[in-house]
TrEMBL record:
Its EC number is 2.1.1.33. One of its GO terms (cellular component) is tRNA methyltransferase complex. It comes from Neisseria dentiae. This is tRNA (guanine-N(7)-)-methyltransferase. Catalyzes the formation of N(7)-methylguanine at position 46 (m7G46) in tRNA.
């Protein structure tokens, strides 16, 4: 995941616009089952990138709350959250082919209808496909921490990217971040706290909401002795 952290002004953010990326392209082996899921389920649950705003209600076939998830990995937690919140619709974005195949496979196996999947750079999706005020929530769980100091500039959660996300939230909508890397958690808290339009729901870090299950990254972090930090901020009216 690559982006820069310039001073918080629109001119500098615009200068860095082209450098922001929501991902680092990873290669991986696509299993036969994952490929089969893409071949058979993409027409129903996949959403192709387009350069104009998408009608999310039409994409899901109903007018329910919409949540954007960026970076769903293999999709296990995303599917579980969708099962726990059946009245909420989830637009799940990742670029990892096996992950896309796996989430579609899980959608089919679990008979989950409230997820739509995209394989594209989330930054371009946010900029071009999502209308302002179209989201009730944004989930970004365990993004790459880029833990070496010289790589910190590649982290996703930095001011320019969050500035792109916030207009897409309805008033009262929330952004929920989670990480198992303490220094990144501190950066996330600083970035989100820097926006006057956001209100922290906790004094600092939030209790893990009931809807978020433990992910494999979280379990791995705990095994390594890491803590886990959730942040939940709400857009003010």
């Amino acid at each position: 995941m690559t982006n820069q952290q310039p001073p918080r002004d629109a001119e500098t953010a615009e200068q860095h616009k082209r450098s922001i990326r929501s991902f680092v392209l990873r290669q991986g082996h696509m299993t036969a089952a994952q490929q089969r899921a893409i071949d058979t389920l993409w027409p129903q649950f996949g959403l192709d990138y387009q350069t104009e705003p998408v009608d999310l209600n039409a994409a899901f076939g109903r007018n329910n709350p919409k949540v954007l998830e960026i970076g769903f990995g293999m999709g296990v937690a995303t599917v579980e959250i969708a099962k726990r919140l059946p009245q909420t619709d989830f637009l799940a974005i990742d670029v990892h082919g096996p992950g896309v195949g796996n989430i579609l496979k899980l959608i089919g196996e679990e008979n989950v209808a409230n997820i739509r999947v995209m394989r594209h750079d989330a930054v371009e999706v946010v900029e071009n496909m999502l209308a302002d005020g179209s989201l009730n929530g944004i989930h970004i769980f365990f993004p790459d921490p880029w833990h070496k100091k010289r790589h910190n500039k590649r982290r996703l959660i930095q001011t320019p990217f969050v500035a792109k996300l916030l207009p897409k939230l309805k008033a009262g909508g929330y952004i929920h971040l989670a990480t198992d890397w303490e220094e990144y958690a501190a950066q996330m808290l600083e970035v989100l706290s820097g926006f006057d339009s956001l209100q922290n729901t906790a004094a600092a870090y939030a209790p893990t909401p009931d809807y978020r299950p433990e992910t494999k990254f979280e379990a791995r972090g705990k095994r390594l002795g890491h803590g886990v930090w959730d942040l939940v901020f709400v857009r003010k009216d």
